Amino acid sequence: MTKEELALQIARAMNKGCGQFVSFNAFQCVKGYFLDLEMADLIAIAGQYGIVVTGLDGT
Question: Rounded distance, CA 11 to CA 33, Å?
Fold first, then answer.
């Protein structure tokens, strides 16, 4: 899983249930923020949303 794929999955998980316009704007902001983080930080955040990360670190 790449950093961008993980950032997208986390942003989607965070914005479930929001209206289309609000969720799109929030999605873009959150995605941009996540892409600036280190992969280890993204993996930790993903775990809080129940996203299982496979690939890069062998997990």
Answer: 10
Q: Each residue of 10-42: pLDDT tens digit?
A: 887 877 766 565 667 777 788 888 889 999 999
Its pTM stands at 0.71
* For helices 3-14 and 39-48, angle between their N-to-C axes, nearest 10 degrees: 30
Coil, helix or strand at residue 44: helix
**Rounded CA separation 45/38 (Å):** 11
- Residue type for 3, please? K
Rounded Cα–Cα distance for residues 51 and 35 (Å): 17
